[in-house]
Predict the structure.
Amino acid sequence: MEPVVNRDFVPTIDLGGRSTPAGRAAVAAAIGKACEGSGFFTVVGHGVSRDLVDRMLTITRAFFVRPEEEKDRSANRGSGVSGLRRPGGPYEAFAAHVTGDLSDEERARLGTHPATWKAANIWPDEDFRAVWYEYVAAMTELSADIMRLFALALDLPEGFFEGKFDAHVSLILANYYYPAPEGHVLRREMHTDWGSLTVLYVEDDLGGLQVRRDDDWLDVPAVPGSFVVNIGDLMAFWTGGRWASTVHRVANPEGIDAPSRVSIPFFYLPNHDATIEPMRPLARAGAGTGLHRVTVGEWFSHKMQSTYQASA
């Protein structure tokens, strides 16, 4: 079945009015409705500088078109995700953790579970690193405020989540999708995100992101100057199943030779030792079955093991 666009399923929410109590309440209500439906929404009026986004896109795209031998110096050769990754298929990626520039001793204290946030970052050069750090700072500020709006949407104190993110282990990732000929259907297979919150930048007008509703694939509208926000499996778990972590994928536009495409998701992840417990009073009937109290380290270790076992 051909994908369609449904703007109610993935609404566009203007964050511009969130500076007043009444405005925050209205924005939070809209976010809560979206999270109970698809778990996806697009934000405008977010306050992130367009100049910063443009510089992030420019320096990131320039990295991916460097000569292969030059990129190889930043390639990941260990068990983490930092640096250049070539996972196979029609794309490659570059990743860094906010913890990746800590000392070896500091990273060793980030829990006993196998976790990507314990690996050192691998930077191609200082200019690249500086722009990425500036972008991460803006994404962290925006994500923290969205979490405060999440709390309001759940009828919780606005600062309810803050203690879980004061030493967050978030991940910044850039995907580079190679040009694809007409008829090449997918650039990224269907999946859900594992964490709490993702803030995604995609190149305007190129499109391709789709979310699943029942048996349909719905196109997420490309809105200039926006970010796409979605919750992950951890946030669905945290709300006891009240909010949805929805399967999504990246498809090629139909009927054309698709150009290269860059997307930059920021995965806002809690502290490695934060304890997450489902909000059982908020759960729909039966949604809490089998859920239990876990730390973030335990959660991601379980996710990694389940994924590797499934692909073995």
Remarks:
- The domain at 4-311 is CATH 2.60.120.330 (Jelly Rolls).
- The helical segments are 21-37, 50-64, 68-71, 104-108, 126-153, 233-238, 296-311.
